[in-house]
Design a protein that fits this description.
Layout (H helix, E strand, L loop, with lengths): L15 H9 L1 H10 L13 H14 L5 H21 L2
Helix pairs in contact: 1-2, 3-4
Length: 90
């Protein structure tokens, strides 16, 4: 229990030992509460090319008044090319 890692199963909250641990280490309870609403971090394996394509699509829509579908279609091609390049090197 005293590893510092979050438990994998939420059912651990019913365990007497774990409840006692959370009483001693309230931060663990907070971390478990927040884990239920957390989202995974997106890691751009292309060195930022996908993130840049998303930002560029946003700029096209907000600054240049390009329709969202058109902007996303355009930038999707750039992002996909970056992914294809990444996977080809693997």
């Amino acid at each position: 229990i005293n590893t510092g890692y979050l438990p994998v199963r939420s059912s651990c909250r019913e365990d007497k030992q774990f409840k006692a641990y959370v009483d001693r280490v309230p931060a663990m309870g907070v971390a478990l509460d927040q884990a239920s609403i957390a989202i995974p971090l997106f890691v751009d394996v292309t060195g930022g090319k996908i993130n840049q394509a998303i930002k560029d699509a946003l700029d096209l829509v907000l600054i240049e008044n390009v329709p969202a579908k058109e902007a996303l279609t355009r930038e999707k091609k750039i992002a996909q090319a970056a992914l294809d390049e990444y996977w080809a090197a693997k």
